[in-house]
Records
---
Amino acid sequence: MKDVAARAGVGLKTVSRVVNGEAGVSSDTERRVQEAITSLGFRRNDSARVLRKGTTASIGLVLEDLADPFYSPLSRAVEEVARAHGALLINGSSAEDPEREQELALALCARRVDGLVIVPASDDHRYLEPEIAAGVATVFVDRPPGRIAADLVLSENFEGARAGVAHLIAHGHRRIGFIGDRPGIHTAEERLRGYRTAMDQAGLPVADSWVAPGSTDSERVRADAARMLDGADGTEPVTAFFSGNNRVTVTLVRVLAAPERRDRPVALVGFDDFELADLLSPPVTVVAQDPADLGRSAAELLFRRLDGADDEPRTVSRPTTLIARGSGEIPPHER
Amino acid sequence: MKDVAARAGVGLKTVSRVVNGEAGVSSDTERRVQEAITSLGFRRNDSARVLRKGTTASIGLVLEDLADPFYSPLSRAVEEVARAHGALLINGSSAEDPEREQELALALCARRVDGLVIVPASDDHRYLEPEIAAGVATVFVDRPPGRIAADLVLSENFEGARAGVAHLIAHGHRRIGFIGDRPGIHTAEERLRGYRTAMDQAGLPVADSWVAPGSTDSERVRADAARMLDGADGTEPVTAFFSGNNRVTVTLVRVLAAPERRDRPVALVGFDDFELADLLSPPVTVVAQDPADLGRSAAELLFRRLDGADDEPRTVSRPTTLIARGSGEIPPHER
DNA sequence: CTGAAAGCGCTTACAG
DNA sequence: CTGAAAGCGCTTACAG
């Protein structure tokens, strides 16, 4: 900038005015400065600008996995809102590891992002208290924060799961297996609670062996599914599954499509919609969330804070939709 | 930092040493500084650090769409390599718009990212010349840069497409439709060239109406597919499709699965693998690329430059794999 | 082992 | 319409 000023024969401030499109520069001076800028290949250094202004026009997003088909539209939606507000998006994957979440979130704060959207992997976010006090706007999405209060966008996990399981019950199922995500993950617990409530409201008992929370690793899911289908532990085999998420559903579809399982069709309702679900045979009935909508809502809450809103933290709840396609309407087949 | 120094009764430089874990601080002093840091809730301001050091430990990634299932694993792979090198990832979607690509890339340069990975939407990257001259390492992936030389990672688009079409020919097809991405996109052109070469090598003529490059919009693809299937323009209907990418393949699967099309099965080979392709009926034969591998390779080339390599720009070529699953092995059905 | 001074490249507040 | 000085929060180069 100094070089530009020297070359154009003007002061630093005048260059700054031209670069930022401020008023109060004669058109002649402006032309000289522009010329100097292009011939020197000058580009404003935003780091210096940030240091002086205190605002970075960038926001951070921490989620589980950028490549997960549930999270990637969420991320894209956050990006679009950020773009509309002139901000860039820095994002990172926590890989469901609380330490990595913290490391990422704090690294983003050290870069002085204006705000943070977090899909938490951790259940204790007190580490963010100094950052929030220092003015970093923070919004949680998909799962609530732990031990701090903050804006939050959530799907109706409990109600969605309850409705999905009630749908299976309405189609005659009495022995329904639940394969979900790890306990400790809020969505997993809410969906499990929805399952138990639906069973309870229908007066159906739940055998311990029908409930299998755990990792979404396909080997784990296959093992638990096989156990429930073959009626281990002396209980009767399940005639239907309710799947706690996207990743689990895909594995269950594979399990149920295996040739040796085809003679006894098993019903399936999955939480989360996914591409091509309608083209599988049978097409998969799901409780759909709208990940882009979750991302958009969270980003809008964030920019509301950045625009100065300082009322109490609010929680936004987004409904789910049961989409009946076939797999959830299969009647119970006994062996 | 000044406050911390005052509180601990030490100089600024000593605080800097503690914050950066440099040697040469007595353990007693270090403890006092650490205490001051935690009680003040101090966190180093990386913007200031960047300004002084000239390096940001962040890299930028510009691609078409963060939510596209082809690009999201690529993005995640870049993130992992960046993380291994202690860098954060800032990314943005160009939405296949050259202006938006330029705007994003230059915004990232203004933030002084150390390097840039770009999936180009534009065919002229001379706008990056001043940035590259100023030291921003730049690597292109999936498509080559326009009018500048730079490191590049590419799939074997031509050879993959040629092999995919040859596979259909080997299964008896003589009238094969090609539905691809827009002309001007390098991958689209290479794959079309592969199609033409395979047809040519087999001595098969190509009717104009069998070649339909264009947007991946599903309405466009449906219309072109219907035209080829119904044999408009006085030509015979095609008995097989070669699809130029992921998005097109998914639409074609839907077209071919329609009840009114089922009596005359049409073969399909798609470029790009996708989740659940093996569970569709028929399972979809694809020419698979490895997007995570592309991302990883590009990021590794980038960090190689950042570590000081200044040899000639290099091009890395990654092979594709033909995965025969069923849809590509359907024999020709005449009406 | 420790610290004072200068400077990274901008913007702010002010004066002319 | 224009510019000189101070300062944002760090690190570098140097001295003790």
Note: Chain B touches chain A through 50 residues (CB under 8 Å).
---
Amino acid sequence: MSIDVDLKEFSRGFKTKKNILAQSLALFSSKGFKATTVRDIANSVGVKQSALYNHFKNKDEILETLVEELMTSAIANIFISKDNVSDRLQGKSLLLSISTTFKLISFDIKNEALFKLLIQEIYNNERVREIYSEYFYQTNVKKLSSLLFEMMQNDIIKSNDPLILANEFFAPLFFYQMQISLFKQDKKSTSAMVSLFEKHVDFFWDNIKS
Amino acid sequence: MSIDVDLKEFSRGFKTKKNILAQSLALFSSKGFKATTVRDIANSVGVKQSALYNHFKNKDEILETLVEELMTSAIANIFISKDNVSDRLQGKSLLLSISTTFKLISFDIKNEALFKLLIQEIYNNERVREIYSEYFYQTNVKKLSSLLFEMMQNDIIKSNDPLILANEFFAPLFFYQMQISLFKQDKKSTSAMVSLFEKHVDFFWDNIKS
DNA sequence: ATATATAATGAACATTTGTTCATATAGAAT
DNA sequence: ATTCTATATGAACAAATGTTCATTATATAT
């Protein structure tokens, strides 16, 4: 067996394809999909428009590819990211870990772009809504619900509807993430937002602990 | 003095102008501004495209007019709406009143359209961001903060950072409003969402009451 | 009833936009 | 070095889009 597998990842074509996606994400997230032209994309990539069609069937397929990336993005896998969450940690530490992960994601450039894409296309694109609902919302709420339910069984927290609690926990995190992206859009300072993630956990934990 | 003031509100032109705005709001909020064509608008209004230009300088001016409507919309004036809020009521009743107003707004058709317009244009339109930040966010958060601060003075609730509390109170309301608009988009049932507004107040009040 | 101001129409326009395709070029395999 | 495949280019296209304007129709005031 020889080792010279012709890995596509190093081919010229693969590099431009990756570049097209990166530049498109940047453009779609800042101007919106409809307002971005294929000429915009080509210019950003440093290539003529016709070259794009060697890598994607059309403009829509570029969006579709990016939209599918949402599934593998950070928020969709917030419970998988890092080793800590939901394994070793318990109680408040667990919640703090989730919140901190959320905070880091909110300040991550790539993720910020995906988030803005999500928000801007969620009403126009059914697939985006599907992914948001299934992978962003439901997965995380269900997972947290069951963790909270466990804590109730172990008398670590007060008895309550776990689904309501999970919503109450995530809503501010989502809200803060949105606020951060809006502040950045206007180049406002986001330093005051940093502490909000921990303060939320403090507030939340005080309410649910037994 | 005669009474036959020529009220513009009853003129033919005023009616179509109002209609153009109504149809444009419906279209912008469902397809997005950029994806809506002047032919779309004209068709919805039941008029030829050229007629639009008797009432608005161009397509942008239609959007601008709608955007300014955001300021006089319900969320921007949540504390003014109804007689109850912040006047007679105190403590939990006050919070419940705000939350209920928010719920009613979330289910109001006109407001839902404005909300969707806001969300879709907030990253592209600086004026939208300005209005959101000033009239939606800051006004309400400051007002609630000061009300909460009063409650702290009167030992009705525990001492805490009023700004944090205001954020924690509004974030889930905003989140639920967004969820409702998304559910409606997919024609999913929103009946389960109704109770969330009250449950949020229960949860929140339990945490802050002394 | 006639004149006047207001609003709607039809047709056209210059741009912009997404896409195609024949041709040229570069990189990899032989 | 030559062949072959993958990628990039240039030019062109049809369709869509925002806007204009001369003309016609409609309502209101005289």
Note: The domain at 73-208 of chain A is CATH 1.10.357 (Tetracycline Repressor; domain 2).
